[in-house]
Amino acid sequence: MRDLYEDLPERSRTAATYALLGCAFLSMLDGTVVGTALPHIVGQLGGPGSWYVWLVTAGALLTLGMAMIRDLHPPTAGRA
Description:
- By secondary structure, the chain is an all-alpha fold.
- It has one domain.
- The protein is built from two helices and no strands.
């Protein structure tokens, strides 16, 4: 099997590895914060326990939608 990153310099490989580890850490942190805050948010909204599933699903769909929009318009992403 061919190494897809064999042409990258060692410094770029290291930077990519740290970037992926940082993303994994932020994802874990996000899950922890959501898991802790969600019962309080649902309680304030006065919703039943089944709202947990819907709120998490809505957040995942929103993230997916934003990623798709960003990928459709890469030259304009992040510009004012």
